[in-house]
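Subject: two folds for Thursday's group meeting

Dear M.,

Sorry for the delay on this. The cluster queue was jammed most of the week, so I only got both jobs back this morning. I'm pasting them in the order they finished. Each block is the input sequence followed by the predicted structure tokens. Could you check whether the formatting survives your parser before we put anything on slides? The first protein is the one we discussed after the seminar.
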Amino acid sequence: MSQDPLVVVSVGNDGKSIRSFDFNTLGLNIASARALKTAFELSLSGCTVETKSQMWRDIKIFAQHLCDREISGSTPFPPTVLNTFRDYLSSSNRSNRHKYVIFTHITRLIVWCTRNLPDAVDEKLNIDPLHTFYVRDENRNIEKRAKLDENKIKAVLAAAYAEIDEIVSRIDSMRAEIKNIASGSSNSSLAILISDLVEFGDGFFPSQKILRTNSSLAKRTVSAGGTILLSSYLYPRARDIFPFYLAILCQCSGNPMSMRLLERDCVKAHPIRSDRRRIVWEKKRSGYEQKADFSEGRKRSAPNLVDIVLRMTEPLVTLSSIQEKKYLFLAYSGSKADVPSWQGMHDQLNRFIERHNLPRFELRDLRRAGAELHRDAAGSLLAAKNRLNHRSVKTTSLYVSQLDYREASDKVIAEAQASLASSVIGGVNAENIEASKQKPIETVFGFICKNPWEGIAKGSAKGSLCTKFTACATCPGAIIPLDDIAVVAKLLKTLEQLKDTYARAINEGWLERFKIFYEPTQRILEQELLPHVSHQVLRSAQKIVSQNQIPYLE
């Protein structure tokens, strides 16, 4: 069977159809529909399905405008088509930003047609109104998004958790009531109605067309609030899925577009610790797996929230398409279930902010906030780098406020200098055993630790030897003079030992353990320290590398 010439089919890497876009449904004449279809298909050939879906939504708005203006049968498109579409959008209640995006997308297609399908558009096309929705005016009062500090993040999470508790209680209670109906232990009229609807719909809520064939049931349904309200007692809709998405996104500090497509098997066991679990996801732009670890015992940790979403959405898997069955954030919408679109998530965010009277923010702001909070908590940019799964701190530095960080760093340096000056002037009291803890200690990896008993590194307790004493390349207390030939020689010897250990780990089958315990140090040596050593010092250090001994690892 040949494909309809006005239908565009997006195909996945496996050769299977992902989604189709039917230009027959737009209500346009054949020539106009064919022109838009060709522009859509060829200009977006390398784009993702999500991008195509967004463009398709905008095309339907444009087609509705043409039908309303009674020019859906005009060929070619009239020269004022963009002007009238601009006016059409201006009169809508969409935000200026949304209007701008829609208008830009349609302008892109129409201009493409003028270049490639000149018979489809009047040659005198007017494209002057491109600036309409975003006119810069320095005197206007522009609402700026507030910085998401720790208190604001807590407020966002508190609001999300409050909604999550209500959603879980609502759905779990109704599902329990429906189970009790069969045993005769429940006489809830609401549960009986929902049970009757599901039974009449062969396992799910019936469509309006089918429901109208049973006038008695339809009347009861309308009296109880309608199928949209009633279905929310049994299945999570887009509004119900959003607070879970928001809380998990906030905890993981992930890319919001990537996290929207979390897969149902995203929770993994931690490779080392049984009390922790890991969430993994793919960030297509970076091309490698992202991860975040969480404590198993925290009730609202991201992996535990994922477990709840899995349980609530399990009945929806059979309603979703083959392509979407693997995704976590499935939402019920009538006769089907799918992941809310990117625009849909933004719409839900705006409603969420309004419901809880929160400061205005965007989903992408949560990633930046997560970076700064992790940096502040650890006193190191490396903590933010690891949380954001960046390959380089240079990338991470784009996400954090360098001014705040420099001020904090200056304070730490000033305190360290004062401590050093005091010890030099006052000397060391040999009779006080605690004084030995103030003397810098040389570690096996060639660094000098300011005080391994101070509890600087995360997880270490003050008064006890640092738990990361052999991996203090990530510690904010490390002092690493890169102009000292002896120190650089030890760094080189350490890197040599780590490379040998890496080869052994592959051969002996404990590569994952190497990645956990030793790879961070190797990465810091290769990417953060040795590249900053001068060529002269490096050459001199290489001559005495063999004089250093590094413990045999593992």
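Second protein, same layout:
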Amino acid sequence: MNALMAVMMAVCLNGSWEFSFKEDQILEDVAKPDFAADATMIVPGCWDVCPNWYMKHGTGLYRRTFTLDREMKDAVLVVDGMGIRAKFAVDGRDLGVHPYPYARLEIPVGPLAKGEHTIFAALDNVMEWPRVKLARPYYDFYFYGGFYHGVKIVEREPKVFVKTVDWAKRKIAVKVEDGKWEERTLPNAKLWSPEAPNLTTIEVAGQKVRFGIRQIEAKNRKIYLNGKELFLKGFNRHESRQNEGSATSEATMIQDLQNLKALGGNFLRGAHYQQSQRFLDLCDEMGVLIWEESLGWGNGQDYTTNKNAFPPNEFSDEEWCRMQIKQTREMVRTSFNHPSVIIFAFLNEPASAKKEGAAFINRLIDTIRAEETGRLITFACNNVAKKYMDLANVNTDIVAFNAYPGTIPMKPGTKAELKKKVNEHFNDVIARFRALYPEKPIMISESGCCGMYGEREALNASISTEDFQDEYLTDIFETLWANPDCVGFAIWQMNDGRTRQRYCAKNCSAMFGGSIAGCFDNMRRPKLSTATVKKFFGQK
């Protein structure tokens, strides 16, 4: 059962759909429910990993029938992630265009009679401003076309939200959609933690709701879970795998979570978008802590908005701002009852050293706080230079920053020089943030480097080899593990994955069309660095 919404009636629409692909055409030009199907496509699935449409851009047209064995008085179409824009219709009834990649969509359908119905969908993966605003060509990950984690029709019921008020007294608060918080005490309930992921189910307004009693706090420079000091150790994880794209299977999800646990990790940052509800269910069950953030990457930065890159500055576009606020609010409400989610965040490396960037970041912080989730709030900051320092962490709960000393740009020098760069940079940035925010916890939300699977050169450790990646991560671990002000580290990244392609032009390019910074390759084969990761994770 999904942790947010229990339903009286649900019809799963996964499986084979009639399909036709219209290359280089946008959905506005080809979205016709009576299209002539010439192929079959699987839902969930990404068409651009399939041989016939491999890496192609355009619009995928989908259609299938389904049968209701009784009437639905108020049906909702639920889409658990898609790319990158979608238009839907049921029985010819237009359900509008939905421009929120990766997000869980809950689209009102209205009454549906008993019997057979036809659903139509048009999904396009063509990135073009201003028609597409939340997906930009410079984002450093690939936007796959298709349905990522399934489609279903459900009968609407009010949402129920549960949060922990006092972990020691087993006190929770419950709210039915548009209602008020009411406190309850569950004296016999077991606590949820990574070591003991105990889940609790209660009935509210006729619905069974699953959650976990646990309380996350940031105080005195530390993070605490259920009153116990917590150190976050893990990876950044993209929803991506070779031959699956973003439609990763449950087997892949479990494989990633087991790999994390086997290395002694407890934490994943969901980079850089809303997470699949099924994935969060598994994190709840397996005891993995999650940072979930709404979609964004480098927004408002000089390197993404100047005349040689990708104008405009999105912070100056009010529609983009409204869409960001909406997707962030919906992400929070969708994932509210997952105990695994301990941090809500947004964007990634935004222009937080600029006044307009800091002002909008505060709007997003206010959006999350208004939901009263009991989670910690932050974002991944990369404005850490002495002359270009972040302005936007005044209202966050955790200071989190990304840094790649010696590797971005790639100037590592000798082994001794690289170690010195890593040590000085991280300690300097942490010290400056500590001076700005005397009581806030500080963590590293990204750092790492490329390591091509199978490329080993122990004698010299040339860049992009497994040996160099292992050397670099060792330097980072030794620095951070010795710094008492560091409360967590998320390695960039867990697995290799596809990113910018040749068609993106300008400053968008990537080695082999992907990132090879994973400690596991795209097929989840471990690299040399995993032994080092396990060693250091075991020390915390």
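Two things I noticed about the second structure. The chain is about 20% helix and 30% strand. The first strand starts at residue 10 and ends at 12.

Cheers,
T.
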